[in-house]
Amino acid sequence: MKTEIQTLESRRLWLRAFRQSDAGDVYSLLADGSIADTTFLIPKSYTKEMAEDWISTHQSEFEDRTGITYAIVLKESSKLVGAISLIRIEEGHQAELGYWIGKEYWGKGICTEAAELILEYGFLDLGVLRIHARHMSRNPASGKVLLKIGMKHEGSLRKHLKKWGALENVEIYGVLIEDWKDANHRVDTVPTSAPR
Length: 196
Ligand SMILES: CC(C)(COP(=O)(O)OP(=O)(O)OC[C@H]1O[C@@H](n2cnc3c(N)ncnc32)[C@H](O)[C@@H]1OP(=O)(O)O)[C@@H](O)C(=O)NCCC(=O)NCCS
Description:
The chain is of the alpha+beta class. The protein is 29% helix and 32% strand.
């Protein structure tokens, strides 16, 4: 069984394990609250200590096979620009996709590229049969990403989430391995010797 998170590579991106030295960058990307506003788990007032605590959970989640979280890094500049995860992994069955990208990097196709890569990892390496995701209805950019990577909209849950005191509608998406293979939503990955 692998105990080290394997780095993945696409045209513009590395997906690599977070390290404690990333905590300052994570804090800078999350500090203004615009990412926390549309995510399910990120607290409103974010601190560097929260980033350190979050990063410290990744290795044990990976070893328990319950989740895998990647730093999204631009190959060109080595800049950390976001995070992408498969969480709630149920072996041989399914996993949930989640992600965020730093605001200054929105709209450049980065999330789509990273999500295609982690989907391929989920289906081919983790061996799950279904990958699903959810977003608040008021966050259509996330829905666009999910459609672009081949997911189907499976339903809407009205007032399903209580977020900072407000009830939010939530959209549910999913893709099955057979549909993903048929659609050939696969990126050209190359064996990697990425810097660690
Ligand atoms: C959602 C998020 C991850 C998207 O990241 P990104 O790297 O900008 O995504 P991409 O560039 O790959 O794709 C975004 C798509 O949404 C589209 N889009 C952006 N704003 C939109 C809007 N208000 N309505 C509809 N589509 C929108 C973009 O045009 C793009 O589609 P296109 O490639 O067809 O033009 C990013 O906005 C983010 O981190 N938001 C805050 C955190 C968050 O909401 N995470 C998801 C929680 S479910």
